[in-house]
Amino acid sequence: MTTTQPTGSTAHTVDAGTYAEILQFYARHFQLLDEGRAEQWSQQFTEDGEFGQNVKPEPRRGRTAIAASMRRGIDRLAESGLTRRHWYGNVIAEPDGDDAVRTRYYATVFETPPGGGAARVYLSTTAEDLLQRQDGEWFVRRRHIVHDGT
Prior knowledge:
This protein is α+β, with helices and mostly antiparallel strands. The protein is about 30% helix and about 45% strand.
């Protein structure tokens, strides 16, 4: 993973190929979540992965705990009939040692009511991940989400 240094900046970024891999990873990752596939989504965390939010007292640790927590949320959402879509952007990716990358991005969650109608913004956040490459694939080792306005 080569790094480049933009003119006039001290921040290091990943090369274009790695950046494209990371964007593809996030596209698959969030679509799994939006499809209600909590167990498959959680498999994209390392075995000892961590998922934390500033609005929760403790992060979930390990794939099993992450999957169980997300499954509960997805099941509640299914009962409501709402459809949620995660939209992410403004991804910054910086190398962090061998086969690891730190990312920071914005994520907005939209909700559409049953039967269609106007979608609304449910949540706006900033997220920071530590991604780890294992056997050629990216996994989330640590994720921390900060809800805007909190």
